[in-house]
Amino acid sequence: MGITSALVLFAVLWFLVLFIVLPLRLTTQGDVGEVTPGTQAGAPAELNIRRKFKIVTVVAAVLWVVIAGVIFSGAISVRDIDMFNRMAPAAETGE
């Protein structure tokens, strides 16, 4: 895996975790009872975005280390997940 692939993997994981973490512990303006004019009652009252970004970064980094470790170790390859046997057999180099 090259540096670009590693960065893309981290970015995908980061946004995936972000969309999972964003609605957690969310209090809406309707829940609090103080709806600002011009906004919906479902708008967040207090988002704590900086704290959520820190949590997302830590979780994404842990997931990245695990997934990158599996990729670098070669424990799982693309041929292992080829369910329809569309790939050619691996070339044997040991003669």
Task: Compose a concise summary of this entry.
With 95 residues, this protein is mostly helical. It has helices at residues 3-21, 29-32, 49-73, and strands at residues 27-28, 44-46.
Say how many strands there are.
2
Number of domains: 1
Q: What share of the residues lie within helices?
A: 40-55%
* Order of H and E elements: HEHEH
Main sheet makeup:
2 strands, antiparallel
Per the principal axes of the C-alpha atoms, what is the gross shape? elongated
Would you tell me the overall average pLDDT? Answer: 86
Distance between the ends: 28 Å
Question: What strand order characterises the main sheet?
Answer: 1-2
C-alpha Rg (nearest Å) = 21 Å
Judged by helices, strands and strand pairing, the structural class is: mainly alpha
In the predicted model, the low-confidence regions spanning at least 5 consecutive residues are none
Strand content: 5-15%
Please give the count of helices.
3
Outline the structure in words.
- The radius of gyration is 21 Å and the shape is elongated.
- It has helices spanning 3-21, 29-32, 49-73, and strands at residues 27-28, 44-46.
- The protein is mainly alpha-helical and 95 residues long.
- It has one domain (3-81).
- It starts with a helix and ends in a 22-residue tail after the last helix.
- Helix 1 crosses helix 3.
- The longest helix is centred in the middle third of the chain and has 25 residues, at 49-73.
Key attributes of the depicted protein:
51% helix; 3 helices; mainly alpha
